[in-house]
């Protein structure tokens, strides 16, 4: 499902114009991105959490040059689904 599909589905179910729904979805996503960029997690009860994870420093190999490189510690965005959401997916998807 794409962002356009989500906008169409919400518009169909609520009767709100697609342009308004699209702006709302974009604002929602921008708010989550902005919060994660600032290092703040976003918690949506019953759905899940958008969190910032810290990745430790590690050693990797550059295969083409056959050299060792060090990847410094860094932060990445991640999504952790709520337990109720996970259980619904487990029981309904076959």
UniProtKB/TrEMBL annotation:
<keyword id="KW-0238">DNA-binding</keyword>
<dbReference type="Pfam" id="PF00216">
    <property type="entry name" value="Bac_DNA_binding"/>
</dbReference>
<dbReference type="InterPro" id="IPR000119">
    <property type="entry name" value="Hist_DNA-bd"/>
</dbReference>
<dbReference type="GO" id="GO:0005829">
    <property type="term" value="C:cytosol"/>
</dbReference>
<protein>
    <submittedName>
        <fullName>Integration host factor subunit beta</fullName>
    </submittedName>
</protein>
<dbReference type="GO" id="GO:0030261">
    <property type="term" value="P:chromosome condensation"/>
</dbReference>
<dbReference type="InterPro" id="IPR010992">
    <property type="entry name" value="IHF-like_DNA-bd_dom_sf"/>
</dbReference>
<comment type="similarity">
    <text>Belongs to the bacterial histone-like protein family.</text>
</comment>
<keyword id="KW-0226">DNA condensation</keyword>
<dbReference type="GO" id="GO:0030527">
    <property type="term" value="F:structural constituent of chromatin"/>
</dbReference>
<dbReference type="GO" id="GO:0003677">
    <property type="term" value="F:DNA binding"/>
</dbReference>
